[in-house]
Amino acid sequence: MAVVSITGAEFTVTVASTAYTDQVTSGTITTTPTVTRTKTLGGVAFNQTDLNSTVNLSFLYDDNSGLYDALQTSITAGTSIALAIVGDTGTWTGAAVWIDSCETTFEAAGVATCTVSFTGPLSFS
């Protein structure tokens, strides 16, 4: 079977309906099913009871004019935010994901960067 490789630069990241692809430097999507194990008379039964998704994005800090501001607005208001990550052949979408954390890192000789962590229901298609 042939393998298709996709470069990271082919992904488009959209937060709250605005594309921030040129500013995102890396990302990770993790989908974790919750599986319960139940002992039965016939052995063991496994059942998926939940599906948890997390997204971590690293991006260039843009002060109060773009992605960082949109994230801080959502955090301050205590509201969820829409997220879409589109690859060459697959799309992850979440209409209402929550921000777990948003971190800014700055060095005297470097470029300021941020990392944000989202959690919430994502669908893959």
Task: Give a written overview of the molecule.
With 125 residues, the protein is mainly β. It has a single domain (8-32, 51-124), classed as Roll (Pnp Oxidase, Chain A). The chain is 9% helix and 57% strand. It contains 1 helix and 8 strands. It has one helix at 67-77, and strands at 12-15, 18-19, 24-40, 43-60, 81-86, 91-105, 113-119, 123-124. Strands 1, 2, 3, 4, 5, 6, 7 and 8 form an 8-stranded antiparallel sheet that branches. It is globular, with a radius of gyration of 18 Å. The two termini are 21 Å apart. 17% of the residues are buried. The model has no long low-confidence stretch (mean pLDDT 89).
Average pLDDT for all residues: 89
Total strands: the figure is 8
Gyration radius, rounded:
18 Å
Termini separation comes to 21 Å
Give the CATH architecture.
Roll
What's the shape? globular
List keywords for this structure.
125 residues; mainly beta; 9% helix; 57% strand
What topology does this entry show?
Blueprint lengths: L11 E4 L2 E2 L4 E17 L2 E18 L6 H11 L3 E6 L4 E15 L7 E7 L3 E2 L1
Antiparallel strand pairs: 1-2, 1-5, 3-4, 4-7, 5-6, 6-7, 6-8
Quick synopsis:
The protein is mainly β. Helix content is 9%, strand content 57%. It has one helix at 67-77; strands at 12-15, 18-19, 24-40, 43-60, 81-86, 91-105, 113-119, 123-124.
